[in-house]
Amino acid sequence: MSTSYKPIHDEDFLGQGSDWSFDDLEHYEREIARIAAEFRLETYPNQIEIITSEQMMDAYSSIGMPVGYSHWSFGKQFLSVEQAYKRGQMGLAYELVINSDPCIAYLMEENTLMMQILVMAHACHGHNSFFKGNYLFRAWTDASAIVDYLVFARRYVSECEERHGVEAVEQLLDACHALQNQGVDRYKRPSAISAEEEARRQQEREGYLQQQINTLWSTIPQLRAADARNVDGEAQGLGQRPRYPSEPQENLLYFIEKNAPLLAPWQREIVRIVRKLAQYFYPQRQTQVMNEGWATFWHYNIMHRLYDEQLIDEGVMLEFLQSHTAVVAQPGFDSPWYNGINPYALGFAMFSDIQRICTAPTEEDRAWFPEMAGSDWLETVHFAMRNFKDESFIQQFLSPRVMRDMKLFALLDDDQDDMVEISAIHDDRGYKRIREALSLQYSLGHREPDIQVWAANIHGDRSLVLRHERTQRRPLDDAFSPVMHYLHQLWGFPIVLEVVENGEVVDRHDWPQTGG
Amino acid sequence: MSYFIDRRSNARHKSAVNRQRFLKRYQKHIKRAVEDSVNRRSITDMERGEKVSIPGRDISEPVFRHGKGGRRTVVSPGNREFAEGDRMRRPHGSGGGGGSGEGSASNQGEGVDEFAFTLSRDEFLSFIFDGLELPHLERKQLADMAERRPVRAGLSRQGVPARMNIVRSMREAQARRIAMRAPIKRALCDAQKALEEEERKDPVLRHPGRIRELREEIERLEKRLEAVPFIDTFDLRYNHLVDQPQPSNKAVMFCVMDVSGSMTQNHKDIAKRFFLLLYLFLERDYERVELVFIRHHTAAREVDEEAFFYSRETGGTIVSSALHLLDEIIEARYPPAQWNLYVAQASDGDNWDDDSVQCRQILSDALMPKLRYYAYVEITPHAHQALWEEYTRVQDCYPERFAMRQIVQAGDIYPVFRELFKSRQGGQEAHS
Lengths: 516, 432
What we know:
A: 516 residues, alpha/beta, 4-stranded mixed sheet, 3-stranded mixed sheet, globular, B: 432 residues, 6-stranded mixed sheet, flat
């Protein structure tokens, strides 16, 4: 793959071969930053760390967080990553980047020069600018405080382990992890605070919280046993007194932190830590396609620009194209390699298509996207990146062209029907419906069951009533009963899960299970 | 703005704590898997780690999520022949269009049947020997330490070339050179200065004799300077070693096996596994473990491993022949003062009628006082014979150091082994 021509400039740095040095990295990082700035990618400062593959596995098992508290589940994660890596079933992701300020990205020392350049373009400028620009990240996470907070969390958890025993802490964390997904505020924006402040406030909170809980529970009038039995567990019985909480609460962990009658202050603090981290990762879970698509779109453009400027040669470029193609490959639904829609593929296709619609619109595009067709493409992709999440991004920007290219189709699967039905394919009648269905598929609200705190029976047996708003008869996975068990551990009193569909209670589960 | 940090030299194994916690949490599962594999594994194969599988169900982290059923629409890529309104049978399994959310379809969910990972060799062995201990492991008392071991003890001026400490020698040489050359250099400097002064004088005033004198002086000094040797025997330094008495940290394990006609390959296989377990166990506690293989029918011979396990012999059985040979070998090669002696004997319990009594005598009188531990396993489904009876009497005399068990089938090996070496402190076993 060696080339005979001599480039005009920067001979020393011309990307050739696969070895790299720190000088190379710095040089390319400068060039990439220059090109990224031309494309108006605004980023946090980059902290690029060179690590070994072992350290990469470590980083992997802690979801990229540079520090984390200890828990067996991270060990499990580590073991499975290690197993897969050693067997060659997976390469380690070449991009692991966390949403912090400065933005920490990892380069593996085993990578070739091309890979390092690619990772810098992808993670340090693609993801980084997404973290800084996207509205969800701006509103919900505080990039400058996260690392401090992680340090605080780690210290706090290990202190608790010393004081209360590893097992007690582990049990609590197990329970909290099970409720992680129900530990986020979906609508209320949390206030960002820094770690020192957090540590200071934590002290105050301990005392205050406990006091508050005592008042809440101490106002309970003593019921005679017979009355208690009447009220016991009957949802209608609750209606007689004002329900507590007066509005259903979506954030289970928050509700537990503030209201669980039996938790010790340190336990509440740990619940809070898990909740805070879940909240921190919440935007990532809603922007998978966009985030990966955005980073992929930019590494693709930046690499091409580097090549056009003769900063990298054909060998590097071919190696890059091969790697890029693998990343955005989308096997069909019937392929043995099919593992759902590849967010890289979908996101990259969509951002590239936005660019195409802006620069070379067809009649179809003009009809579908009258405002976008012919507009400034750079402006438009930035607009898309800043103001959407996967759900709305697909709703807004998925074009017929992409649907055709990916040959998307929608399948209606109804358990009351023996057959499944193709409800839409990539044709004129189907585009809108596919787009609708795909957008829904990426909506967290639809993907995850809607479970809220309905009532805490503070006047009776202190049971906690949850409601699962079921849609389309989609049931909970059987794993719900161990989760109920965890909830019971946290709450300390009976848990009731009511399944509600169209306003009617259709099913009810009790924990601990009553009578056979 | 970007900066690079090289973290490669930072601590690895950041996840070691988490990994340990995981192993601890699933101790029971892992132990079961390890036990299975000990019994299943081929014998030469003990030396590596083990792949362990735990049912995914047992270690999943449950969360609220949707299960199968209900009414849902799934969008998938790669349509080839479908047209709108096509109806077909529901595909088997959940593959293809299943799963409500891809991408996030968790890698820790129920979908994975088995959670598989690899234990390192050390982890594997520590699971095998968890809660076991070698009886009487106290090292040989320092008083009767016959073993000595050279220990570094600074530097000396005498020694053999092989122990020369190059760095120190060169440093000495450099110091000596500086010291020896300094006065000569100073004198040389003075002489040269004087000569220059002399030569700068008006030719009329020059003193030819003095100039010649100075020139000679300079020449002489330069020669002396050159004569200072680069390195001298005087500079040489040697690493000094002194012999220090050492508690003996080596063990020898005698494998004694009956190879008479009644021992089938299956018997031998069982015996071999038992020996192997013991060997691995000893290896964990001793720096060096030597193996001696003694096989016997009517006569005993010391053989190598291959012959021990695989060559076939027939004939009657006289166990005492092996014990005699054992005693001879100990006397000749392994003085008990220096070696920790372990014996493992496997047999099917057959012995020449009158011989068993003799065996007891040799054991009680000659062998047991020298040995750390004697483990006898009888591989037989049948009733015990005379040998077992006699050995029981030996055990009564040395209850601490003489152990005997019966093994019926391969599956018994590991439990029997565990029983033999169960930690005497108790406790440890209780929580595991």
